[in-house]
Write a structure and sequence with these properties.
By secondary structure, the chain is α+β, with helices and mostly antiparallel strands. It has helices spanning 110-122, 129-142, 148-155, 160-167, 174-182, 186-198, 208-224, and strands at 28-35, 43-49, 64-69, 75-85, 94-100. Residues 51-130 form the Plasmid pRiA4b Orf3-like domain.
Length: 227
Amino acid sequence: MTPRDDEPDGSREAVPSRRRTPRGEPATYRITVDLDDAEPRIWRQLAVASSLRLDALLHDVGDTLLYAYDFGDGWDHTVRLDEVLPLPDGGAPARCTAGARACPPEDCGGTGGYEDLLAAAADPARLDPDERAELDHRLAHYFPSVPRSGIAAAATEFDLDQVNTLLARPPMPKPLADLLVRAHGPGAGDLIDLIERAGLDGPVLLDTAAAARDGVTFARAALQTWP
């Protein structure tokens, strides 16, 4: 390995680790998560168990850490510890208590790409025909259920109850979780949408009469093929 120009002897001072010994007794951490460089501000306040690997990095009120999501788009977040509270019995492991503005869609180009997308949606007349056609395609992909006239308003929305409904869902089955880990690019967002629409955590309603008929049909077919 060739030494760096600013390190003629090849030595490099080790960066001290910020990891600390986890708390002896788990607590509730009230944290604020800000999406860096977003204007207007996009943020969430969460109440989470300290045992969610946070107590190795966040110990004291005011401590912060940086979290990078999707190295392609580069969604950078600042996580700040606001308060340490007793851990209640039961309840969801994570709960959202406040926030502002909608979460940007996946794979839209990071904070800058998202702001450019909203600006183009608000003033498509400044684009040439080819650019407008491309914009229509992107808007249909990123906001499939929102008309163009409502995109600006949708970007300002924050539904606290909807967020907590998502947080309270049971863990995703491992095969699906593994599939999402392997997915990347624009297809990953489509896969997430399909899983959401499938309602895998909802009840399965069976028509008992139809199930009985299908069972009889299957039994007859099996008997006919019996050697």
